[in-house]
Amino acid sequence: MKALTANRLIDGEVVFWKAGQWVERFADVELFDDDAAAEAAEAHAKSQPTVVVDPYLIDLVETEGVWIPVAYRERLRALGPTNHIEHGKQAEGGKVVEALQHAHTAARSAGRINLIKRK
User: Fold this and answer.
1) Which of 15, 44, 68, 78 is the most exposed place for a label (fewest CB within 10 A)?
2) How far apart (Å, rounded) are the C-alpha atoms in residues 30 and 12?
3) Where are the alpha helices (DSSP H) in the chain?
4) Residue 21: what are its φ and ψ, rounded to 5°?
5) Per-residue b/e over 94-113, b at no fewer than 16 CB within 10 Å?
């Protein structure tokens, strides 16, 4: 499973792709189980250079009944900022935020590795 993420150009906010638009909450993310559909969404997102910076696909794993990013970096971005539990997206709480906070996956995301290989 994959999801599409980027940073919004106007304010640097971490955003996620959902049905043709960018949303701020990871809980609202569109999940892709088909590589072709994921790559098509990524291509469409990259055609919006005045909206977001560097959109890319991230790998997800199911844990506690919800899908969360495999990479620790992406979990931090989804919770952001993590300086205090009452700040940022993590302050909203909920099942997805709890799963992100308690995840213990150790694998790295293949998305970033593929991005490096393309350059």
Assistant:
1) 44
2) 20
3) 35-46, 72-79, 95-102, 110-118
4) -145, 165
5) eebbebbeebeeeeebebbe
Residue 23 burial class via C-beta count within 10 angstroms: exposed 0-12, middle 13-18, buried 19 and up: middle
44-98 pLDDT, tens digit per residue, is 988 888 899 999 999 999 987 889 999 988 988 888 776 666 766 767 767 777 7
Q: Report pLDDT digits (tens) over 4-51.
A: 999 999 999 999 999 989 999 999 999 999 999 999 999 998 888 889
Domain holding 48, by residue range, is 2-118
Residue 58's φ and ψ, nearest 5 degrees, are -120, 150
Question: Among 88, 87, 69, which residue's Cα sits nearest to residue 24?
Answer: 88
Q: What is the pTM of this model?
A: 0.74
| Domains in the chain, number | 1
Residue 74's SS3 state is helix
